[in-house]
Design a protein that fits this description.
about 160 residues, mainly alpha
Length: about 160
C-alpha cells in the first residue's frame, strides 16, 4: 500500500475513531464500577463498604490513566506537527522495511546512531529530543522513546513559554 496523504489521513481517522470508541467504552465501564462502589459503600456492611472504597479507586485510577495518555498523545501530536512544518522529520522512506512495515533492525540501529550524534550535540533542544525519541522507537526501545519524548514535550513547552512570556 502506498503512503499518500489521503491514505495517511484515512489511517489517522481510523485510529482516532478507534481510540474514541475505547475511551467511550472505558467511560461506560468506569461509570458501572462507580455505581457498584457506591452501592457497596451504602450497603451498611463494613466489609462491603471497605470493598466499595477499593472498587471506587479503580475508576478514579482508570480516569487518570486515560486522561494522562490522551494528554500525552495530544502533546506528541503537537510536536509531530511542528517537526513536520519545520521539515525535520526522520526520513525512513529509503530504508529497508520488514513486511510488517517496521524498519529492518540494522537500518533502525544505523538511523539511531545518526540521530544520537545530533542529540548529544544539542541535548537541550526539543527537536533533537523528539528525533531521538522517534529513532529509539524505530530501534525498538519503547521505554527510552517514551522517556525522551516526555523530555521533548517539556523542552518544547519551556521554549513556547519563554517566547510568549
Amino acid at each position: 500500500m502506498s503512503t499518500t496523504p489521503e491514505n495517511n489521513t484515512r489511517e489517522v481517522g481510523k485510529r482516532v475513531a478507534f481510540i474514541a470508541a475505547l475511551v467511550l467504552v472505558l467511560g461506560f465501564y468506569f461509570i458501572l464500577l462507580g455505581r457498584i462502589a457506591v452501592s457497596l459503600i451504602t450497603s451498611g456492611s463494613i466489609p462491603a463498604a471497605i470493598l466499595g472504597v477499593g472498587v471506587f479507586l479503580l475508576p478514579l485510577l482508570g480516569v487518570w490513566v486515560v486522561a494522562s495518555s490522551v494528554r500525552a498523545a495530544f502533546a506528541h501530536q503537537h510536536l509531530a506537527r511542528r517537526i513536520h512544518a519545520e521539515g525535520l522529520e526522520l526520513d525512513t522512506s529509503d530504508l529497508p522495511h520488514r513486511p510488517s512495515g517496521r524498519l529492518e533492525r540494522a537500518a533502525a540501529d544505523q538511523l539511531f546512531e545518526q540521530v544520537k550524534t545530533e542529540w548529544e550535540a544539542d541535548p537541550d533542544n526539543w527537536r533533537s529530543n523528539y528525533r531521538a525519541a522517534r529513532a529509539y522507537d524505530y530501534a525498538g526501545d519503547r521505554t527510552r522513546a517514551r522517556e525522551v519524548m516526555r523530555r521533548a514535550v517539556e523542552l518544547e513547552r519551556q521554549e513556547r513559554t519563554t517566547q510568549t512570556g
